[in-house]
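Illustration: Aldo/keto reductase.
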Amino acid sequence: MTVSIFDTVELHNGVKIPAFGLGVYKVEDGQQIEETIQTALDLGYRLIDTASFYQNEEGVGRAIRNSSIPREELFITTKVWNSEQGYENTLKAFDESMDRLGLDYLDLYLVHWPVKGKYLDTWRALEQLYREGRVKAIGVSNFKIHHLQDLLSHGKEKPVINQVELHPLLSQVELRNFCQEHDIKVEAWSPLSRGRFLDEPVLGKIAQHHAKTPAQVILKWHLQNQIIPIPKSVTPSRLKENAELFDFKLDQREMEEINGLNKDQRFGADPDHIDF
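Result:
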């Protein structure tokens, strides 16, 4: 069980990833992202998840360089965007991301979406980067079971992680089970569903019982399900609240009640129908 913000999860290649992190989608490059990351690092966050598409890799890199925390204690993820996919394009996109980040190596590189007809070639490029030691681990994002099956049957390396939209309204149980069977960790983007159902009475009741907020209850549900949540916030008080998850535990009944909220409801795109 995750008992502290400094806890890690071991990926199948032996690399350790923090059990909890910060997503920076829609955080503005420049002062906003640098201050957000500095606040998060001060609170104990060690996993920072960006992407070339977010257009804030430069700010992430600056925040890392300005921090007093040794690079090896940080875990930095970025992703190759859809228009950058294909073997050669991905290698080029990786170099560009690394230039923007100003890093010597990356902890985790992900295929952002399963672009039809391209993601297998993109994956070959990630395998190449991994073999060269430029990235410590490689994975995917927004892959459904059939995409993963395709990758597993054609790739040389198995993804360490599948980062997907996941929250109590979209609990992705079947996908999680498939990933668990194949030793692929699951990471949740939009773990709080951008606050869309925080007024859900079930969550309110459980939160009250533990003297916590509904957001904290949801993030704890992720952790107890062995899901790595990467909530995004730029508000210092919210960053602090999101990280205060390690002094309570949901019991089996509470976990079941939250499981019962699932409606298979996506707020983001369906990975089978992407046109971006």
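Reading the tokens back as a structure: The chain is about 40% helix and 15% strand.
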